[in-house]
Amino acid sequence: MKVLGIETSCDETSVAVIEENSVLSNIISSQEVHAQFGGVVPELASRAHIRLMMPIVKRALQETGATITDMQGLAVTYGPGLVGALLVGLNFAKGVSQATGKPFIGVNHMEGHIYGNLLSQKTVNFPIIFLIVSGGHTMLVKMDDHLKYKLLGRTRDDAVGEAFDKGAKLLGLGYPGGPAIDRLAAEGDPDFFNFPRAHLKNDPFGFSYSGLKTALLVYLKDKTEAYIQSNLNHICAAYQQAAVEILVKKTILAARKFNIRQIAIAGGVAANSRLRKWLSEEAGQKNMKVYLPEPKYCTDNAAMIARAGYEYLKRGMESPNTLNTYPALELQSIAD
Ligand SMILES: Nc1ncnc2c1ncn2[C@@H]1O[C@H](COP(=O)(O)OP(=O)(O)OP(=O)(O)O)[C@@H](O)[C@H]1O
Ligand SMILES: [Mg+2]
Question: Which ligand gives the minimal distance to the CA of 305?
Fold first, then answer.
């Protein structure tokens, strides 16, 4: 059962073809136009998606030797994300569906991130405590089975990916900043400075990351450029340590509270080497199994959307052609 996946929720135009758990093609075009602005410009993102959509669909199909008629159906992101960007992918999928009679299913982008992890596993056991960490989201979810989720907690302000990006911007490291901080931190001392950790005692599975970025701003204020440059590795390591420690502690806490032995991470920040190592060590000590996604399926890609869509299509589910985009779409479970 082949599925064509389409992802246009932000600044990656991506199209993939999967067959069950095998990725036959996964083309990702990251829009470079935003780099000069230090963040994504929604209007430019939509226009770039329009320009890139057809050539990328053609390439994704060509790489597999398949045509649209070989597809069981299409899976497309319909939220959360930038409304103008989402509309490009959704309307493209609707058009193809109308023209070919193939069903299409709207997929929640965050559910896509979850399936970006599951796509990377040979076998999975449920339930799983899922830590979803990306540019716009930070949440803990209890996943009881395929397509069944319970939200345990989320960030009340910035997402952890945003904390990485904003921190990197303050340090002059460009956008997106997560990979740069990760790379520089590898050679630094994580105990160089003690940045704050927001524990939120009354909200054990909630997160707050706006204070961390402010703490870096305050820390840098009285430092000379020469001092910052000569200690850049250490500053990155200490900043990353504070960001990651909370993620690891709360994920383990959730697994213990619900007596769950499987934990998993998803989203762009799941590529972070410190998070992957630390969580694996903690889980190993507690005899828990950790599912890590392949780094290429952490940040936005259409293979993860196709994989999530496959779960719906194989159950005979499809979306109506009146489906709209939802910029703030919440993770939903299928009915029992
Ligand atoms: N190695 C890394 N370490 C830390 N952060 C990283 C790393 N690689 C990527 N990131 C971060 O991941 C984020 C991008 O992830 P993703 O593509 O999932 O976000 P998004 O799609 O913009 O947001 P969302 O999925 O919430 O809509 C960026 O904030 C980026 O800095
Ligand atoms: Mg994403």
Answer: 2
